[in-house]
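Pipeline run #58 for the internal structure catalog. This entry was flagged by the ingest filter as a single-chain record with no existing model, so it goes straight to prediction. Upstream metadata was stripped on purpose; only the residue string is passed forward. Reviewer on rotation: M.T. Logging verbosity set to normal.
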Amino acid sequence: MDTLRALGPLHRVCQVCNLWQWRLDKESGLLRRSSWLELYGWTVLVAAGGYAAYGLFQESSGSGDADDMMDAETTISSIGHTVDFIQLVGIRVAHMAALLEALWQRQAQCNFYAELAEIDRQLARDLQMNVDSRQVRRRTNRRAMWMLWGYVASQSLILVAKLVAPGSRQFPIYWIQYLLPMLVCGLRYFQIFTAVLIVGQRLELLLDALRTLQLQDSVAEAETETETVTTGTASSMLRLVAVRQLYQRVWSLVALLNRSHGLSILLLVGNDFLAITSNCYWIFLNFRQSAASPYDILQIVASAVWSAPHLGNVLVLSLICDRAAQCATRLALSLHQVSVDLTNELHNALVGSSVCFFL
């Protein structure tokens, strides 16, 4: 089972949420274009855009009526509605951007997994290293369950806290309008997490191959026969060339990742920053004007929990990217060091064989 088959459950969920427009051919193991999935994706994108535009016009037309009701509505409640509306617009924009990029860059997503399959084949052929696809599936499913439980727990607490408050009959409607695009954005985040982890796993495999080469070099230094040293060094040079080729292919994989998910990363992180900032403003405003009642404390806790998924997404993405970047840096340094060591060792072996020939 290859990586593409291991990620089958994730891709099926992404098909439902319009983030994956390919179907896997079970016989050949290749990705096939699906016109129905593309039509489904464009239909949902147009519907989401139309509904978002309708919500904007409805809010602007209702702002005049809201001014007439200002006497019956407190200032902090008015600010709360404004903060909620800003977050709703932000999540809708991020949702439409994720759908549009998934459709527009669908070929780049296909090329990403095609290049990944070629890298895995070259790893097995040249370096005798295989990727445990079953372990990839288990880890992916476990991460998905943890992320899903985090979303369910946070949104359930928010809903309960808001329903307890007086005058919150309209909140479930707003909550559903916010929840659906947020779940799609969360799934897009999980797609990005999985792709970055795949790249990091291949970098770690190449780093392990270089460590094996360094170990072989240390053993070869203890050899006394020049012919044995030369043969071992030549074999190590061949493996080093394979590692260099794979290193370049992994960088092309990173380029495909940036092309297929770059816009989503920018807008999703921007929306998370907007949501965190808005909730922090709302929390401090509640601290300043609240009467320290259980209801006020519950609203503050609900706002903090509302920010938790956004903050968690940004932190997880930064940690995964930082780990992959550190692995790439170690790999580049090790690749340079092993190249220098093997070159010196081969040069010394050739000089020694020449001296023995003349003697």
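catalog note: The beta strands are 22-24, 31-33.
catalog note: Residues 64-73, 353-359 have pLDDT under 50 and may be disordered.
status: ready for reviewer M.T.
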